[in-house]
Amino acid sequence: MKFNIDGKLFQQQLQAVNKVISSKNALSILDNFLFELEGEWLTITGSDQENIVTAKVEVMDSDGDGAVAVPAKSLLEITKEISNQPLTFTKNDVTGEIDVEFLNGRFRFMGINADEFPRGEKAEDEATVITVPSSVILKGIENTIYAVSSETIRPMMTGIYWDIHEGDITFVASDTHKLVRYINTEANPGITRGFIMPAKPASILKGIIGKEDQDVTVTLGTKGAKFEFGMYSLTCRFIKGNYPNYNRVIPESNPFVITVDREAFLNAMRRVAIFASKASNLVKLEVSQSGMKLAAQDLDYGTSAEERVICDYKGNDMVIGFNSLFTVEILSNLGGDSVVVKLSDPARPGIFEPFEQEPNQNIVTIQMPMQVLE
Question: DSSP states of 90-132 as a string?
Fold first, then answer.
């Protein structure tokens, strides 16, 4: 088994696959990449048992198909230092020793029997296949992943819910303090289906899919899905359980409306939040026809801050409290020049939306309020 390969391209594909490899694996074999050479194509595979990432790369002067597992960390560190050079990769089929040559030197290490590397489950006979533009998946994950819960006590909330309809795909994420619903009608899946994608493969997919501007073939099984696009594929398992009815959480009537410059609101929130209690991160919003005032205080340290922000407000005067950390997250991820905040009562959730929704897209974010003590 022998091939020549461009060092820079090789390094890029290794880095893409390495995203799935865990720092602590139950099986030591998973600390390795699996290399499979067939003709002029090398397939690089990484896995953490739950998820599998593969990347293909074209090689030159290949001689002899074969497979071998190689230490991921060592190979990444070495190739990073010589990524601008062509490499010659040779495996001794008798001893299992691997020799990698570059312009001014070489290094050797032992390969591991490829048969020890766990393979993914075989594709299901009755799996459903749909084609989705990569931009739809990328935007769906980008707009929701920040709201995924890290609390494992409710596993269903630790992933992104894909609610697939015939004419759209809705992405939903929530940590119970905030909820994001992103609808994209660019895709026409033609089916009705739902599944919860864990945060780790969603993050990996987001990172890789940005390199490929093309359609993604999604194969949906009963326990997991496979995403194939360009030179890459990702296989992941679903989170078991039923996702809560997210539409019931979104208030239907929030008649009081704030329209404000997003950057001005975001920056003011960041500044005032510095003086908020570290225990609650509470920032009060006092809204009236004359504008909006943000206020925070930390009684333990005797500090406080307030700042006025110009806005357009239609509604009754109101004082409502929000966790500043969550509000900053929401405003940072909404995008656009202006945002709309819809309120109804200090005890009910606030709705955050872009002032102008992009074509074929609709994003709604809600944040639970906090009790404000006068």
Answer: EE-TTT-EEEEEETTEEEEEE-B-GGGSPPPPPPPTT-EEEEE
Q: CA nearest 340: which of 284, 251, 258?
A: 258
Specify the residue for token string 């003590």. 373
Query: How many angstroms separate the CA atoms of 227 and 225, rounded?
Result: 7
Burial of 81 (0-12, 13-18, 19+ CB in 10 A): exposed
DSSP letters of 39-61?
A: TTEEEEEEE-SSEEEEEEEE-EE
Q: What are phi and psi of 264, to 5 degrees?
A: -65, -45
CA–CA separation, 14 and 21 (whole Å): 11
| DSSP label at residue 33 | E
Using alpha carbons only, give the angle 349, 185, 340 rounded to the nearest 5 degrees. 30
- Rounded Cα–Cα distance for residues 156 and 141 (Å): 16
* CA–CA distance, 172 with 147 (Å, rounded to integer): 9
Helix, strand or coil, per DSSP, at residue 204? helix
Q: What is the pLDDT of residues 225-280, one digit of tens each?
A: 999 999 999 999 999 999 999 999 999 899 999 999 999 999 999 999 999 999 99
For the segment 321-326, the average pLDDT, to the nearest whole number, is: 97
Q: Which of 207, 213, 204, 141 is nearest to 170 (CA)?
A: 141
Integer Cα distance of 154 and 150 in angstroms? 9
Other CB atoms within 10 Å distance of the CB of residue 56? 16
Q: How many CB atoms lie within 10 A of CB 126?
A: 7
Mean pLDDT score, 91-104: 90
Cα gap 161→181, rounded to integer Å: 9
Run of H or E residues at 326: helix 324-334
